[in-house]
Amino acid sequence: MVHEQMELILENVFFYWKGSKAPKGLSPLPPDIDNETAIVNRIVQWSEPAVFFHLFEKNRMIVFEENFNPSSPHLFIVRGELSRELHLYEVPFMKKNLRSRGVFVIAVPQTRSIYVWTGSKITNELNEVVKEASLGVTVRNYVDSWKNFEILEMKENEEDDLFVEDSSEYWHVKEVCNFSPKLFFLNTIIGEFAAIEVEYPLRSKDCVAAFPFLQSYLSISDDQPGYFLLDNNHEIWLITCDLKPSETLRELEALASQFARSYTEEKEKMLSVSIPLKFVKLDSVPIEFTNIFPHWN
């Protein structure tokens, strides 16, 4: 019998994280990191892999907007489905940024309060994870002047007093939401029609992900023409934008439309219900579409 000796090699992996509003372009590594031998994983806000959040142990990652003012109200969306992957990103303090399928933490210094706001369509599993995570305490401890704020619970439709002068609105979902949306990029880049499913970096087979995709994923241009099909379970969206007319684009439009109709028909058979197929252009999107995403500029 031959025993082969195996040497365990330990290597450091460096995550180079950039915020969503950081300057574009490739940023240089710190001088103490060897550019040639270091294993560097460059990631950007909103698209981090699951393993990144496991590095923080019990300390939740919170990202504040630039020019942070602790005396102003703040709105944080809770991202992730598993306890160790929960994190919070600040979004502009506007009522339209709430989501029926989401959980938010709202800091209101004027009343010395922090609210954990839950939408009416979050899953029972996420609700339990959020309760155990004590996210209100997490946010309170991040800012010295907030440490004595009272933590309260708030449900969808109870928030009007927090947004008194805000006439904007979010989409109040009525349907049952026990599903994760799916997104497909429809294109002919390789010379034949293809429908490529877009992956969610935090996807877990046992969890429902309410907001797996970002607005930035919907990248369509004359250099990369295509369509996106968004399966929101009770509705299907076919997404495009205005591109330069061409024979290739006309062929792609026909193929994408046929794929969307066939996909919708199969979905209807599977669920035994009628499902609308909706067409939308990125320069003119309705609120029920934008609210399928965690945030929309």
UniProtKB/TrEMBL annotation:
GO annotation, cellular component aspect: actin cytoskeleton; cytoplasm
One example GO MF annotation: phosphatidylinositol-4,5-bisphosphate binding
InterPro entries to which the protein is assigned, alphabetical: ADF-H/Gelsolin-like_dom_sf (IPR029006), Villin/Gelsolin (IPR007122)
Gene3D superfamilies from the UniProt entry: Severin
Any GO BP annotation: barbed-end actin filament capping
PANTHER family, per database record: SUPERVILLIN, VILLIN
Official protein name in the record: Gelsolin
